[in-house]
Amino acid sequence: MSSENKNFFLVKNVMLMPGKFPSINSRSMLKEALDRMTILKIGICCVVDNGQLSGIITDGDLRRRLLEVQKPTSSLLVDDVILHAIKNPISITINETIDNAVRIMESNLIWDLPVIDEKNKLHGLLHLHPVVKKLLAI
Fold first, then answer.
1. Residue 24 to residue 80: CA distance in whole angstroms
2. What is the pLDDT at residue 8?
3. Over the chain, what is the mean pLDDT?
4. Dihedral pair phi/psi, residue 126, rounded to 5°
5. In the chain, what percentage of residues exceed pLDDT 70?
6. What is residue 17's three-state secondary structure?
7. What percent of the chain has pLDDT over 90?
8. In the beta sheet, which residues pair with residue 92?
9. Per-residue pLDDT tens for 40-80?
10. Alpha carbons 93 and 123: distance in angstroms, whole number
11. I need a labelling partner for 90 at 20 to 30 A (CA). Which of 22, 43, 76, 96 fits?
């Protein structure tokens, strides 16, 4: 495969760009993360501070948290999102291959990967649906 064809299959060519997926800063309320996921119709919200990925929260995390926490839902939703976020999420770097990304997703049973650089700066989000569309277009 030529290097041009290999570039076609890089994460950076398929990832969602900032603004196209939910993100929020760590001091925002948990409810804001839920609102952003609902508006953008993606079940993950990246927690970002000064461009750096601080964590993620997913709709599944929220569902599990609601069942675990012994306080009213309304009081949980005003917590800072970082209190409930996964602080060391599985991620992928911007120049990785889609093939490697799909393997990571499959082995961890996840649909989304934050895309970062070597300094943990968030560049995008790799969502499984655009990956499948790209692969089916071959």
1. 11
2. 61
3. 91
4. -95, 115
5. 93
6. coil
7. 73
8. 115
9. 999 999 999 999 999 999 999 988 888 888 788 888 889 99
10. 9
11. 76
HSE-CB of 130 using CA atoms within 13 angstroms: 20
Q: Which residues contact 98 (CB under 8 A, 6 or more apart)?
A: 9, 10, 11, 14, 131, 134, 135
Q: What are the backbone angles phi and psi of residue 128, rounded to the nearest 5°?
A: -60, -35
Q: Which two tokens stand for residue 131?
A: 């990956």
Say which residue the tokens 């929260």 belong to: 57
Assess contact for 126 and 16: CB atoms under 8 A: yes
- CATH H superfamily, domain 3-136: CBS-domain (3.10.580.10)
Give the whole-angstrom CA distance, residue 82 versus residue 69. Answer: 15
Residue 34: the pLDDT is: 94
